[in-house]
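Please check what follows.
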Amino acid sequence: RRTEMAEKTVSPYGSWDSPITTDLITRGAVSLGQMVIDSGGTYWAEMRPSEAGRSAICRLADTGDSPIDTLTPPPYNVRSRAHEYGGGAFTVHDGTLYFVDAAKQLVYQQAPGGKPRALTQENKMAYADFLVDEARNRLICVAEDSAPKGEAANSIIAIDILSGMITSLASGADFYAAPKLSPERSSFSA
């Protein structure tokens, strides 16, 4: 019995169709980013290639018997543009999530089980490195203003959690990062 062999086709390098695509390779390659531990759970940023690279905030409850929850619904993409490379794009305090969305760089508050609510309005600011000042009901963070000509101006600001009013706390230095409250909680340090 004679079997016929298919004729081989020789093509120039790189000109053939391959069944191995970049989408096939990266589809399941979820990467994990920033992590925050808060009462009741562990939270992290999860970059999802299957959702066009969207970064979502996920939570695993302390009980460990519940499934992993995705807290930020599409289209929210948790990512900061501060300092060009980003920075801490979210924090959690008593189960309430505070994050910056990549599209407009607005800061959002999301109560447990609730929907995201914008705290800031559209402007030319990028926000990062969040810290909740519970005593003053405000969110402290780094802000980068890209409005001025030349180099971006950095500052430490406070965002009132109820009104969204922004107050400058420190400015004038070339770079600010990771603000912290003092042990007495009467001031912060940059």
Remarks:
- The CA atoms of residues 154 and 174 lie 7 Å apart.
- The mean pLDDT is 86.
- The first helix runs from residue 22 to 26.
